[in-house]
Design goal:
The protein has helices at residues 3-13, 38-67, 80-111. The chain is built from three helices and no strands. The chain is mostly helical and 116 residues long. Helices cover 63% and strands 0% of the residues.
């Protein structure tokens, strides 16, 4: 797995892992200090705000394409059905990841809120 893939996965893992609350030992000058609450929240919510709507609207568009209400170009694929299959897999991944970011951000927000 490449570094770019790991960096993109952090917004989902930041709220769920200990390094989302305390900087890990491998971060110079920051190790052991608390992570500002807004840092993981902002990253997760920014990702959710872009991926979830794209995925949900895309699923609606694909439903219309499957039903024949809108034309679906086949692009480089042998048939329109193949193009729809690949689009379904990709758009569903965007929707699932976006919703997972919303859930992770909400969980982190509830766990790290100041004590009343």
């Amino acid at each position: 797995m490449g570094r770019a893939t790991l960096v993109r996965a952090f917004p989902l893992w930041d709220p769920a892992r200990p390094w989302g609350q305390v900087f890990p030992c491998w971060t110079p000058f920051l190790r052991g200090r608390r992570v500002p609450r807004g840092l993981p929240l902002a990253r997760a919510l920014l990702g959710a705000a872009t991926l979830a709507p794209y995925g949900v609207v895309g699923i609606g568009y694909l439903a219309l394409g499957t039903g024949g209400a809108v034309a679906m170009g086949r692009g480089d694929f042998p048939s329109e059905g193949d193009a729809l299959l690949v689009a379904r897999i990709g758009i569903t991944a965007f929707a699932v990841y976006g919703v997972a970011l919303v859930v992770a951000a909400r969980s982190y927000w509830l766990r790290t809120r100041p004590a009343a």
